[in-house]
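Q&A log
Question type: sequence-to-structure
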Amino acid sequence: MTPERILVVDDDVDITRFIEMNLRFEGYEVVVIHDSQEALTQIQRRRPDLVLLDVMMPRLDGVELTRRLRADPATAALPIIMLTAKALTADTVIGLAAGADDYVIKPFDTLELVARIRSTLRRHRQVRELSPLTGLPGNTRILTEIADRVRGGAPFAVCYLDIDHFKSVNDAYGFARGDEFISLLARVAREATTSCTPPAFLGHIGGDDFIVVCTPEQVPQLTERVITAFETEARALYDPADLERGYVEATDRRGERQRVGVVTLSIGVAVSTSRRFDDARSVVTVATKMKQIAKSHPGSYVAVDRPEGE
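Response status: OK
Response body:
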């Protein structure tokens, strides 16, 4: 695994040497620069994972450098922690208002500095993983969750949710309306998973595909609740005339008009009690296969993987 890269920007040679030594000991890759203007150039060439930045710098102070980084779309989300020798509220407020994620006051405790760096990096990793449309965890977090269940040994189930006829609806109404169908599924699935005891995990693969990780016992009630709520509330997203007819008209790949029924859900379920899983990807493979089976059935359908012989 490649170590995370931290850029330390401070004109105090003794402080940077001390920071560099401690951060390298913690396993980070550290680059030290004593001039903020040069730091701006280096960041543009190769973006670090986090910038540790002194407020008081020659030529270009830390606050102004932060403002410039936040103004550039390429570095707008770059994690920044400010170092300041002034324990004044005004200094910290100015730094945070400029866009810094956190601040540490000199002289600082090494353990606190490392803890703040870890916390900031972890928070940004989580934010990067969230779907901008649904706010749900993405693929990396989903695989981690499933892998934890595989290693844990307790029975679990993985449900792969997919909207039937979504492409046709998206083509007929446009992507903005399509996003409303995706957001609806995210909301009703979130309501269903949070109502479980213990709460189930919900992730967004992308598009109209979602993953739920729960216990085998939770599958029937959870999937039924999601299907019922989605089918009921999706009606409000159709044009009244299409809803009354019971279908939308869309153009297929050959340029021909076709009639497509209202959206339903196909759900494929992989269950750890049905077979042995060695890793997360094998679980997803089975859930995907079961989703394809569910799609072969009309209307909303839940296909659950069964042990051989059943």
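Response note: The domain at 139-304 is CATH 3.30.70.270 (Alpha-Beta Plaits).
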